[in-house]
Prior knowledge:
By secondary structure, this protein is mostly helical. It is built from ten helices and two strands.
Amino acid sequence: MFTAIGTVSHEYGHITAAKILGYETTLHYGSMNYDSSELNDKLIQIYNKYETEIKNNLNFEKRTEYETGIETLKSNGLLITICGPLQTIFTGIIGLIILIWRRKQIHQNGLKIIDWLAVFLSLFWLREFFNLAMSIGHEIISPNGTWFSGDEKNISQGFEIWSGTFPIILGLLGLLISIFVIFKIIPNKIRLTFILSGFIGGIIGFILWMNIIGPELIS
């Protein structure tokens, strides 16, 4: 269930940013789209009319409008991309804060419903480690020269820094936070069960949502 919730809420992070920027959006089970065709069409018309000037970096009548439009597309696209991981991270931070706040009560009285909810919310951070591990694993198994993927890679490239910067930083943070939750919050007597059931449940949830349930509910 939380695999589906995490996936959809992540996409709503993108959607929220796109809506604020004035775009029409579409939610899919594992992705989202936003309609920037109006600005794209305008820029294409300018490009087609002044192609020679643009290619040769010459002045032309609508140069300011064209360059401003290009920058708007880039900055809006980067902001929309950022807000997906930001939503996931923010959710994970809320869960982590609750666990730290209630840590003594958890050790004294065990995990209550609010604590279990906080555990699952904090483990939204696992997405960052999962994405990093999957992209590196894919490159090892099927090399194509790309070690990183997803929003985090695109964010790094949007800031014009090494493409692995955000994937590695957020991936390691996700790993450390998940280790803290599992080994410092989850009681010893149920830890192994939690790890195994979480691993199996995560895989099953991913397969069910991405291949069976998700395409039927949100195509």
